[in-house]
Every structure is written in structure tokens, then in C-alpha cells.
């Protein structure tokens, strides 16, 4: 067991089960544009690369850029109002974070979700536990680029040594690799074991409390 002192967490699919709210917002935006809706399972596979990519994957093939932007704008407006309708931490996540906090570990969230939503969700569910939360914005490259991880480490005033990245997807595995950090891949999120192993996962955990023992 390695004694990590800093934990950098992905948000969607890692700390929070946001899938139903993401699917509802996607389908609302598609309906408003007269486009066919998507299943929750389809949306699950669309997420991970930011909202723009989610919408690009959700709209019908051949949709032009202007229409994509209109769907994106509608998604953003709706999600900011309904992002907490059914979203909650996964079972065991609050207890895991509280234990890390008690042990004096430093923690941050880095997400490809747009910045305002990342801040709102982090404050609502993890205020007082995780103080650094970084989302997508124009001035910094999104994951799998390592920029948000580097910014989180800088804000926490820690070095790479002793830090670990925790996520649920292939994007997270690449992000950790690009940042030079070990990666813990969780099995309760948006991607399954076989997918994660096929995309380079080396450390898998089945429950949030297992993170503490890695």
C-alpha cells in the first residue's frame, strides 16, 4: 500500500452519479431542437470528454455546427437548473472523503463538466471537505490534457510526488498518464471493468473505501 498524501478526483461517475440528470438534460435539449432522444445507456457512453462532445455525439449524424451549438446552449441552461434533480454521491463516497480528510490528505476535483456546474456540485455535496474544484473553461485545456491536474496541484500547494488520480473512464486513465500520476480506476462509474482494462487501467477498486487502502 502506497501512502498517498494528495487525491485528485474526477467528478461524474467517480464521486457523483450524475447520469440521470445528464440524460434528462440531453434529451430536453434534443427535444427542443426537434431531434430524437437518446437512452440513458447511450448517454452513459457519450460522457467523459465535456459537454460539447456529449452533444456532438448525441445529435443525429450530419447535424451542422450552428444546430449543435443551439442544442449545447439549451443543455447548459436546463442543466444549470436541473443538475441536482437526481444527482447524489455514490454509496460510500462521503465516508471515504471524510476518512481522507481526517487523515490530513489533500483533495481536489478536476472535471470536464463546465466550470459553473462543477463549482456548484462540489460546493453542494463536498463543501468543507474538498475546497479545490476545477471545471472546463476556455483558458485551460480539458482532460485528457494534464492542465487541470497541474492547476489543482498548484492550488493545493503540493508536488506531484505522493499524488494519485482517481477516475472512472479511459479519459481519466489518459489524464493521469499525461500528468505523470498513478491512476486508481473505480468500478461503480460510467465504464465497466473490461473497458477500463482494455484502455490501460492497472489499479481497480470496487468500493469507495477501497481507495483508502491503495
From TrEMBL:
Signal peptide: none annotated. It comes from the Bacteria. GO terms for molecular function: phosphoglycolate phosphatase activity. GO terms for cellular component: cytosol. InterPro entries: HAD-like_hydrolase_sf, HAD-like_sf, HAD-SF_hydro_IA, HAD_2, HAD_sf, PGP-like_dom2. One of its GO terms (biological process) is DNA repair. Its EC number is 3.1.3.18. Transmembrane segments: none annotated. Pfam families: HAD_2 (PF13419). It catalyses: 2-phosphoglycolate + H2O = glycolate + phosphate. Pathway: Organic acid metabolism; glycolate biosynthesis; glycolate from 2-phosphoglycolate: step 1/1. NCBIfam families: HAD-SF-IA-v1 (TIGR01549). Belongs to the HAD-like hydrolase superfamily. CbbY/CbbZ/Gph/YieH family. This is phosphoglycolate phosphatase.
Amino acid at each position: 500500500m502506497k501512502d498517498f498524501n494528495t487525491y485528485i478526483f474526477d467528478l461524474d461517475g467517480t464521486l457523483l452519479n450524475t447520469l440521470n440528470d445528464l440524460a434528462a438534460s440531453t434529451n430536453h435539449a434534443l427535444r427542443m431542437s426537434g431531434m430524437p432522444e437518446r437512452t440513458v445507456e447511450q448517454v452513459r457512453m457519450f460522457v467523459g470528454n465535456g459537454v460539447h462532445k456529449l452533444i456532438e455525439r448525441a445529435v443525429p449524424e450530419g447535424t451542422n455546427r450552428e444546430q449543435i451549438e443551439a442544442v449545447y446552449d439549451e443543455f447548459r441552461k436546463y442543466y444549470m437548473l436541473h443538475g441536482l434533480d437526481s444527482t447524489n454521491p455514490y454509496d460510500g463516497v462521503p465516508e471515504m472523503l471524510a476518512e481522507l480528510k481526517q487523515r490530513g490528505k489533500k483533495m481536489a476535483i478536476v472535471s470536464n463538466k463546465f466550470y459553473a456546474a462543477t463549482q456548484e456540485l462540489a460546493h453542494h455535496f463536498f463543501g468543507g471537505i474538498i475546497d479545490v474544484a476545477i471545471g472546463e473553461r476556455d483558458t485551460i485545456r480539458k482532460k485528457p490534457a494534464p492542465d487541470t491536474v497541474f492547476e489543482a496541484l498548484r492550488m493545493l500547494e503540493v508536488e506531484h510526488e505522493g499524488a494519485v488520480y482517481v477516475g472512472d473512464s479511459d479519459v481519466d486513465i489518459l489524464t493521469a498518464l499525461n500528468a505523470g500520476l498513478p491512476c486508481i480506476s473505480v468500478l461503480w462509474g460510467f465504464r465497466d471493468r473490461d473497458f477500463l482494462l482494455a484502455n490501460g487501467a492497472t489499479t481497480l477498486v470496487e468500493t469507495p473505501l477501497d481507495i483508502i487502502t491503495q
